[in-house]
Amino acid sequence: MLVESKHPELEMCIASALGGMVRELRFVDLAHYISYAQMEKTNCIRDVVISAAEFYFQPGFVRFEDVTKTSANWGEAAYVSLQVSLDCLVARNFVNIVLHEDHAEICLAYTDTDPNFNDTDQLEAICSREIDLNLLRKPLKKPIQVIHGPPIHC
After folding, report:
1. In the chain, domain spans
2. Helices 8-25, 42-53: crossing angle, 10 deg rounding
3. Long-range contacts (CB closer than 8 Å, 24 or more residues apart) made by 48-53
């Protein structure tokens, strides 16, 4: 069952901004991510994520959250899910990047804001502006598939 995102415009902005970084992440073989996750070597995954992020974002804006989920079962397509966060002034956006053999998916898992801040339209505008300010390279105009759904938990 697909769940409608609470911040669809923000999710599209994030997906567009992360597109280049995700393409960099896909250069690493899926089997490496799966083995790192299964051996609990999240520091290796963090290094790869930080290296991919530094091509596209200001240092420290994108963080790997040490949350992974993998699937490498017989008869099923393998994938790895990596959770990253984007630190904006008023919110921290947690995003699941799901890497498959032939494509990737980007899903805004949730947005952590100050409990007193409840203006959704202003939140999306501020976060979108922050993303644009921290983006070193403008994204390509290639469409990104956004999957709306529940957050992936380990």
Report:
1. 8-134
2. 110
3. 49/25, 49/82, 49/84, 51/24, 52/21, 52/22, 52/24, 52/25, 53/21, 53/84
What is the pTM (predicted TM-score) of this model?
0.83
Strands (E), 9-78: 62-71
Distance, CA of 25 to CA of 115 (rounded, Å) = 34
- Taking only the tens place, the pLDDT of each residue in 83-96 is 999 998 889 999 99
Residue 142 to residue 15: CA distance in whole angstroms: 11
The CA–CA distances, whole Å, from 45 to 26, 42, 138, 149, 154 equal 12, 5, 25, 24, 16
